[in-house]
Every structure is written in C-alpha cells, then in structure tokens.
Specification:
Structural class: mainly alpha
Number of helices: 4
Strand content: under 5%
Order of helices and strands: HHHH
Distance between the termini: 19 Å
Largest sheet: none
C-alpha cells in the first residue's frame, strides 16, 4: 500500500477509536488520556506492512459490519479495536498473530 494511503488508513482508525473513547469514557479523562498516549500514539507509528493493513481494515470493517447490522455500540467496538491494536503493536511479526476482527476485512470500505 502506498505510504499516503497507509497514513490515511491509520488516521481513519485512530479517529474511529477516539470517537468511541469520547462516547464511552468521556467521564474519565485520565483513562482517555492514557489510551490516547499509549495505544493510539503507538499505532500511529506502526510500519506499512500487509498484516498491519489487514488489521486496520478488519477493525474498521468490524465497525462497518456493526453499523450495517444496526448492532453498533461504542463499547463493543472499542473493546475489540483496542484489543487488536495492542496485540498488533506487540505481536504483528509473530507467525501465530491473528486479530479478532480479521474476518471483517471483507466489510471494509473507504467511506465509513
């Protein structure tokens, strides 16, 4: 994937997660700040690799799937997104790495 497209994809993910953080944890600014400082910031520096691209598309596809099925809620999305983002940051080079949301890559589309 071209660098510009990859950066836009990462930005799309960070924005989606940040929006859900605002909805779920707006009462806990300290927790939100911690997640933004750690997970979101770390993910912004993730390398342009097909495994990471698929992880991002899977997380965004999961959001699209939940929205299309009228099942979207910020807590469910956030739980799975943060889990996959943290696991990706730590383990993307491992042979066994397979994100929870991997099966939702097919639902990904640019306009969410």
């Amino acid at each position: 994937m071209e660098t510009k497209q990859f950066e836009e994809l990462k930005d799309q993910l960070v924005k989606a997660v940040d929006e859900s953080l605002q909805e779920v944890y707006n009462f806990d600014r300290k927790f939100m700040a911690q997640v933004q400082k750690t997970t979101l910031k770390s993910f912004k520096h993730a390398p342009n690799d097909p495994i990471i691209v698929d992880t991002i598309k899977g997380i965004l596809g999961f959001k699209i799937y939940l929205t299309d099925e009228n099942k979207f809620d910020h807590s469910t999305f956030l739980t799975n997104a943060l889990h996959d983002m943290n696991e990706c940051i730590q383990n993307w080079v491992e042979d066994w790495y397979s994100p929870r949301t991997n099966r939702y890559v097919e639902y990904y589309r640019v306009e969410i």
